[in-house]
Amino acid sequence: MLKILGAAAVATLAITSVAACSSTEDQTEPAAESATAADVPEASATAAGQITFSTNYGDIVVRTDARAPRTVAGQSTLAGDGYFDGTICHRVVTSGIYVLQCGDPTGTGTGGPDYTLPDENLPASEPDNYPAGTVAMANAGPGTAGSQFFIVYKDTSLPPGYTIWGEVTEGLAAVAKIGRENAEAGVADGPPTQEVTIESATNG
């Protein structure tokens, strides 16, 4: 299972390959199955510098971070293979931490690829160490990230254990709208009231 722990109120994010948290619960989800080292995407100079997630709320453009080369290679490969196409963002958290969680092909918070990734580009342990626009991986502990990722739509404080692999350069307002709509609907941590679908993910 993948989880994220919130610093201020011990908020906990549970994600299948990505972590999201609630301000009062400790939720976890199954981690992706381990694979041999040969199965894990290698860091590559040709990995995408940008991934565009086309959603029913509009495009979300993520500029990838070269300081997380293995993670970027993995996410770029999955995007190129159509892995994210037609999937839903199965979790939104509007209390304690502020994230939209996506990347699970099963839409249940328990899915992921047949490999796990090493931790990379971890931030310092300080307030708002996952600022608005950050795109990071969920995990179930060190070295367990797979495909699930979370988009931070409002400055968030978390334990520094979640690989930061990108930054939203376009579409953050749409993610914030999803958070706002669900907060108004009383969703603190759970599936969005209106389904959020990644229609396609493309490199570049």
List the helices and strands and how they pair.
Layout: E1 2-5, E2 12-15, E3 50-55, E4 58-64, H1 69-80, E5 87-88, E6 91-93, E7 99-102, E8 134-137, E9 149-152, E10 164-170, H2 172-184, E11 189-190, E12 197-203
Antiparallel strand pairs: 1-2, 3-4, 3-12, 4-10, 5-12, 6-7, 6-11, 7-9, 8-9, 8-10
Would you mind describing this structure in some detail?
The protein has 204 residues and is of the alpha+beta class. Helices cover 12% and strands 26% of the residues. The chain has two helices and twelve strands; from the N terminus they run ββββαββββββαββ. The protein has helices at 69-80, 172-184; strands at 2-5, 12-15, 50-55, 58-64, 87-88, 91-93, 99-102, 134-137, 149-152, 164-170, 189-190, 197-203. The strands form two sheets. Strands 5-12-3-4-10-8-9-7-6-11 form a ten-stranded antiparallel β-sheet, with helices on one face. It has a two-stranded antiparallel sheet with strand order 1-2. The longest helix is centred in the last third of the chain and has 13 residues, at 172-184. The radius of gyration is 15 Å and the shape is globular. The model is unreliable at 1-38 (pLDDT under 50).
